[in-house]
Amino acid sequence: MRAVLQRVQRASVSSGAEPLGAIGPGLVVLLAVAGDDGPEQARVMAEKVVNLRIFDDDLGRLNRSVRDDGGSVLVISQFTLYGDTSRGRRPSFVRAAGPEQAEALVERFVEEVRARGVSVATGRFRARMLVEIHNDGPVTVIIDTGGPGAAGSERVAGS
């Protein structure tokens, strides 16, 4: 699994004119599932997301998690995170899981996050969505739970 996490003041998702989900302070998780992912990757990703210390403590240090802060999570399925642009001009998505597998594992991830006491809102799988993100910081983190050399790797970006 691969995820882009953005710390937000608020975020929402809609499909057409239909609102699907919204959160206040917390995290937006853009989540992709690889073809070789399974329930264990969903569990590991959920554990990392709810416990990752990317919220400010009283001293302004990144020392609190979304769970510590009582924040929420907005999960958006995004297979394009597995786009391979190393050849040509059109991304290849061969590493991304098929729709049935991906949908089941995204749902599993959502259940795992909820089981850890964090409120979750979601988009709609396979829908064209408009995501509104009010990034806080900005703080953006990339997490990858699988693939050669990717286990447990994270990168933090911000300006």
Could you describe the 3D structure shown?
The protein has 159 residues and is α+β, with helices and mostly antiparallel strands. The chain is 21% helix and 39% strand. The protein is built from 3 helices and 9 strands. It has helices spanning 39-51, 66-69, 99-115; strands at residues 2-15, 18-23, 26-32, 55-56, 62-64, 72-77, 119-122, 130-144, 153-157. Strands 1, 2, 3, 6, 7, 8 and 9 form a 7-stranded mixed beta sheet that branches. The chain has a two-stranded antiparallel sheet with strand order 4-5.
Relevant terms:
159 residues; alpha+beta; seven-stranded mixed sheet; two-stranded antiparallel sheet; disordered C terminus
Architecture blueprint of SSEs:
Elements: E1 2-15, E2 18-23, E3 26-32, H1 39-51, E4 55-56, E5 62-64, H2 66-69, E6 72-77, H3 99-115, E7 119-122, E8 130-144, E9 153-157
Offer a quick outline of the entry.
The protein is an alpha+beta fold. The chain has helices spanning 39-51, 66-69, 99-115, and strands at 2-15, 18-23, 26-32, 55-56, 62-64, 72-77, 119-122, 130-144, 153-157. It contains three helices and nine strands, in the order βββαββαβαβββ.
